[in-house]
Amino acid sequence: MTQPLLDVAGVQKTYTGSGRTVEAVRDLTFSVADGELVCIVGPSGAGKTTLLKCIAGLLEPTAGTVTLAGSRVDGPPEAMAVVFQEYGRSLYPWMTVEGNVELPLKQKKLDKARRRELVRDALEAVGLADVHGAYPWQLSGGMQQRVAIARAVAYQPKVLLMDEPFAAVDAQTRADLEDLIRSLWHKLGVTILFVTHDIDESVYLGQRVLVLSSSPTVIMEDLAIDLPDERNQLETRSSPRFAELRGHVYEQIQLAKHRKGDQHQADEVATGSHRAGQPAVAADPRP
Ligand SMILES: Nc1ncnc2c1ncn2[C@@H]1O[C@H](COP(=O)(O)OP(=O)(O)OP(=O)(O)O)[C@@H](O)[C@H]1O
To answer: Is the CATH code 3.40.50.300 the one for domain 1-76+157-165+192-264?
Structure first.
């Protein structure tokens, strides 16, 4: 078997401080192959952002490891880029669109001509070539999020991490941005880990959906999304298989809201199964 590009092994994160201890993530193990598009969905407060920050090297896990292309992550790796929900806070208002997209490239020690080329290509890829000289505050929310995506794309990451990137935009813009992500993924071959609390969005976008339990968090299910690769907001979302898959994830999330990681682990011990939705395997397979 080929080595996965991203490997998350036994990640646990407990926040301590101000006399409070919160075990946000209990025990998360999964891997992502090169070129995959995986969505992570879970109830509010399930530790999705905590997990993404651990993967991005922005937060140190209390236990467990994150490995990217065989190297342990212990700080932000050059091969990763993150797009956050709050585009308003992630763009510099005093810099033009072009300036914002170019900024992280300056760390890469590329010459000016190459930087300009990457900025131009990224803005073209997200459909913003004609506003390169505008300031973020002159653009709509959806356009600002496109700038944030262009900035991540220009950086040419191997893995693109996205933390509820479309939560703050209207439904129509959100649909357009979802299609933009699928088309960038096809065009660039980048590996994407996309966190969302929106069940429909996770099924529409993903090749796989990881369903998280309530905090302290474990993976309740690792579900393959067997929809055709060519997705379309109208046809895909109205197909019977889409309805089945979203219904299944919805049920899991309802269970997840009431089932914390410790409960799930107790169930695993009882049934010997490792993933919800799969047939339970006897703990001791001997006859
Ligand atoms: N810096 C912190 N210090 C202490 N506790 C924290 C910190 N950040 C997050 N938490 C706690 O960890 C748990 C998980 O939070 P996290 O933001 O990772 O969840 P989430 O799934 O991303 O939530 P949402 O979907 O609401 O954005 C919550 O109980 C939260 O209060």
So the answer is: yes
